[in-house]
Amino acid sequence: MEERIKKIKSNEIGNGKYILYWMQESQRTRYNFALEEAIRISNQKQQPLYVVFNLMSNYPQAQKRHFEFMLQGLKNVEYNLERKKIRFILLEGNFKENILKISKEASVVVWDKSYLKFQIENKKIILNEIECDVYEVESNVLVPVEVVSMKEEYSAKTFRDKYNRIKDKYIVRIEEEKYSVEYPLKDKLNEMNRSDRYLPKNFEVLDGGFIGGEDEALKRLENFLELKLKFYLEKGPDNEKYSKLSPYLHFGNISPLQICMKVIESSKFTECQESFLEELLIRRELAINFVYYNKNYDKWDGITYGWAYETLKKHLLDKRDYIYSQEKLEACDTHDKYWNSCQSQMVETGYMDGYMRMYWCKKILEWSETPQRAYEIAIDLNNKYFYDGRDPSSYTGVAWCFGKHDRAWKERAIFGKVRYMNSNGLERKFEMETYVKKYGR
Ligand SMILES: Cc1cc2nc3c(=O)[nH]c(=O)nc-3n(C[C@H](O)[C@H](O)[C@H](O)COP(=O)(O)OP(=O)(O)OC[C@H]3O[C@@H](n4cnc5c(N)ncnc54)[C@H](O)[C@@H]3O)c2cc1C
Fold it and tell me: What pTM, to 2 d.p., does this model score?
């Protein structure tokens, strides 16, 4: 628990009037170590707690779909905090100005740990100027990123070896603190709240059947455990036996610790559980390790290994049977009906299963003028359409298609030694016509 919480700034004067939890990456009230820590400090100091969220309409790469999902989740947070008698304040505009302004009279600010550059840089700027105590809390991984490893790990194997040695220590139920402080009668902070203006009045079903929020995330998890987990090894584009929890994990609507505990409790340990936990813990937290330690995770020159750049360069001038522009790809207009179907699933529903994501990205590599252009197109489409886009797993998933965390394979055209995928594999494994019927245009 202590390793999740770090005091990153101390103010000796300590004359603030309230506690702030600046919620950004962990948009939930359950299994949220930052919220629990903020409540604990607030009770101890007998100073009121405000949970603040800062809405930024020009957040990098965010689209209407992302905002709709997120605002539903925040409405859910507001409601669940109200039941704990804790006030939620939604601010709108520039992070720095808002957080600095609202923390002026705070004695302590608690915030979520970030992994992506943009988020880390914002917090660094605020930290330089903020005047109260600041605690940074890591709630969105099972094992804190720096506890697993202090460097970028080479592969899932090197990461897994370190992770498995320590993970059990972190699989513990969270003790919820009961909030016990009254708010002042004349509450100036509460007047800054813009939630009425931005939060939805009701929860309409969004593209792809998604509804944002922690209550929905929990419902989906229960449904997955009851009906799908036992078929997890057979999951594929034709059967939907996966969890579809990635949008909820991305917005912090659900904690990986809570998922992990429920999976372990759900039945006797099976291969399906093991396989699901490999994805949720090892693959997801390896992705966090990658973006945390590799500051060029989003630049073509920084995403993969020397051997992969070399082999792709060697095959740069290989003949490409098809070259598609980003516009053609985005319009689902290629010769390949499987690819068109997954692109159309992405555009229409904001989701695609893991196997199709690999196929989707490998084909962009095959059909682009250069690997670099392929990377740029893939990351752009990924982050524009997926609810779970702009995540550490977005950068790592796309980088994997260019050799990251993978090994060299048999050499072939265009790909060189980077792993190749073709549609025969899809047809062998899945009922592809079912998929095409559902999503093909
Ligand atoms: C080209 C490409 C792009 C990708 N883009 C994204 C993205 O934008 N956002 C994103 O969250 N994931 C991305 N992934 C990883 C993975 O495909 C998705 O996390 C997964 O398909 C989400 O569906 P699910 O929740 O139903 O997964 P499930 O199979 O139910 O798995 C449960 C959870 O485990 C995690 N997980 C599963 N597979 C992976 C993986 N390969 N890497 C990291 N975590 C994993 C996710 O958090 C997921 O929600 C990408 C993978 C590839 C190959």
Answer: 0.98
